[in-house]
Design goal:
Order of helices and strands: HHHHHH
Number of helices: 6
Number of strands: 0
CATH topology of one domain: Four Helix Bundle (Hemerythrin (Met), subunit A)
Shape: elongated
Low-confidence stretches: 4-8, 15-38, 150-175
Radius of gyration: 19 Å
CATH architecture of one domain: Up-down Bundle
Strand content: under 5%
Largest sheet: none
Structural class: mainly alpha
CATH class of one domain: Mainly Alpha
Length: 175
């Protein structure tokens, strides 16, 4: 069942990717709220520094951890794309053995990405004061950088959403 779900998810992602690359739409306009398309990581760093009130030492640690993460992840996007392309071909050919092997390779790649993201978050979290850690709340994974793995309780990182960090338990969010 998991393999079927994974294969269908991968097929959908591959089709969406193929449709995007085949379309001849112009480049997207800059995103609202002053977030440039070019350097989301820098915007993320600035947002996190402001939101948590990071001092210069903490900002340097954040930047260093994110750059180390970026270096560790180099080549993974290309590897994932190649695996997705191979998965699409395996699905079309009905090659269940290859589908299993590719699923395992994609799973291993995802596992590496999650570990890198979690280790980055841990490095940043260790530099925070108790008050800053309270602001992070139940979502320390958000400290690992943009595009991080969705581990942890709840629907995922919330720091970037309107309203800031998730509300304390027993309270309702402001919306």
């Amino acid at each position: 069942m998991k393999t079927c779900f994974l294969a269908l998810s991968l097929l959908g992602a591959g089709l969406a990717s193929a449709q995007q690359s085949a379309s001849t739409t112009p480049a997207p306009a800059p995103r609202p709220h002053g977030r440039p398309n070019g350097n989301f990581e820098q915007t993320f760093e600035q947002h996190l520094a402001t939101r948590l009130g990071l001092n210069a030492t903490q900002q340097n640690a954040l930047h260093t951890a994110l750059m180390e993460s970026r270096t560790q992840r180099q080549g993974m996007d290309q590897q994932r794309q190649t695996l997705h392309t191979s998965m699409t071909a395996a699905i079309k050919a009905g090659n269940t053995g290859q589908i299993e092997a590719l699923s395992q390779q994609l799973g291993a790649l995802h596992q590496q990405e999650m570990a890198i993201h979690a280790n980055t978050a841990a490095k940043v979290y260790a530099t925070l004061t108790p008050a800053q850690q309270t602001k992070v709340g139940a979502h320390p994974e958000m400290l690992g950088g943009p595009g991080g793995a969705g581990f942890g309780p709840g629907p995922g990182p919330r720091m970037g959403r309107r309203g800031g960090a998730p509300p304390a338990q027993g309270t309702t969010p402001n919306q």
